[in-house]
Every structure is written in C-alpha cells, then in structure tokens.
Amino acid sequence: MPENRRFVIGDIHGCYRTFRTMVEKIIRLEKGDTLFLLGDYIDRGQSSREVIDYILQLKNESYTVKPVMGNHEFMLLRSLEDPEFFRLWIVNGCAATLLSFGADPEKVHDRESVFKIPDLYIRFFSELPLYEETEDFLIVHAGVPPGISDIKDHPETVLWTRDETINEKILGNRRLVHGHTPVPKEMIRERIGDPKAKTFNLDAGCVYNRFPSLGNLAALNMDSLQLFHLENIDLY
Asked: What single string gives the DSSP state of each residue in 88-157?
C-alpha cells in the first residue's frame, strides 16, 4: 500500500459510525498517512462526543490527524462567553451535542449545560486551528473570499462564508479545500474532475440523509484526487 498518502474528509456532524467506517474501511488510513478534517464534527447528528473521542483516539494511537475548526465548534466555544451565541447555537443543532455529553434532555436549551462539557473536549475545540496548509492545498472550513489578507484576522468569515470566489493573494497556485455548504456528491465529483477548478467543496451533507441528493460523507485523496463517498449509516 502506498505510504504517506494525504486525505481530507468533509463535514461529519455527529455521524460517528459513518466517519469511522470511512476511515477504517474505505480510505483505510495508515500511520504513514495524513488525515485533514474540515470542521463541523458536532451538532445535528446523535454522536458528537463519539466523533471527538474517535479523533482523539486516532491521535493517541499516533495517526497524523489535522482537524480544523468549523463554525459549529466556534459557536460552542463562543457560547461559553456570550449568551447571544448560545441562542444562535440553539437553532443550529446544539441539543444533539449537549445530549451526547450527558445533558439533561429538559435542559438542552439551558446555557448552563455548555459549562458541563468536560475540559478535555473544551481544550480540543479551543486548540483547533482556523486552517491548515501544504505546498499545494489550503484547508479551511468554509472559504477564503477576496478582501482577506490574513486568515487569522477574519475567523467568522472563513468559518461562515458561502463565497467561493478565489482569493488569489492567499491561495496563489494552490487549491482550496473546504466544506460548510452541503452539495450533492455529483457536484463534488464534477468539480474535482475539472482540471481548471481551484476550489473543492467536500461537504456532501452527511447528516442530511432525508434529502435525496445529500446524506453522504466525502473524502478526497489529495495526491491522486480520487474521491470517496459513503452513504450515511448513522441515521435512518
């Protein structure tokens, strides 16, 4: 098996079984590989804590895993500081995450439940970088639109934007890989097959399995541009 492969996986949203199957059965991650993750590990799906536990397990077992922050992790962290952000998080699926961390079902809309998430996980979320980069790829959650000169100065933009316009200054000759906006797997495949494309959106809407065109987890081999899809096996 080829060594030192590089993979990137799109938005997971609490779909632990699908994520683990993708890693172990589909791409068959090896310890010489590098796995990038595009954020939004939590919310909406039922197994947010299990997703984080699995990422931590891979790291503890000496796999090279490089997760970036998504807007959902950002909302969790800001909810610890700002009640307004907690209200925003409520309408974006926080209940499923808080339940996975053992919150009382009657208190998932109570901000105090956020403070009961163990420090191990808060530290994990706090240490997530806004981006990762290689010589040929820039990896962020949502995008890097024009007008941004330094990603670190615009966290909310790169976590929430829907703008795929190329930021030539930052991207240069590299390609941008992101998630955030769910799209059908056929659109992802078409974009990756376009030799002129410089942006790849890998959010195949894994948690949205009730929509006929969505409900898939996507992974990309960054070296061969081979695309993998796995239909959601968490939600029925």
From this structure: HHHTTTHHHHHHHTT--GGGTTSGGGGGGS-HHHHHHHHT--SEEE-SSEEEESS---TT-S-GGG-HHH
CATH superfamily of 16-71+129-231: Metallo-dependent phosphatases (3.60.21.10)
Q: What is the mean pLDDT of the chain?
A: 96
State yes or no: pLDDT of 1 exceeds 60: no
Tokens 């010489």, located at residue:
32
Which residues are bridge partners to 108 per DSSP? Answer: none
How would residue 235 be classed by pLDDT, with cut points 50, 70 and 90? Answer: confident
In b/e form, how buried is each residue of 138-167, taking b as 16+ CB within 10 angstroms? Answer: bbbbbbbbeebeebeebeebbbebeebebb
Whether pTM > 0.90 for this model: the answer is: yes
Distance separating alpha carbons of residues 85 and 20, to the nearest angstrom: 30
Q: Structural domain boundaries of the chain?
A: 16-71+129-231
Q: Measuring CA to CA, which residue among 123, 115, 128, 138 is closest to residue 199?
A: 138
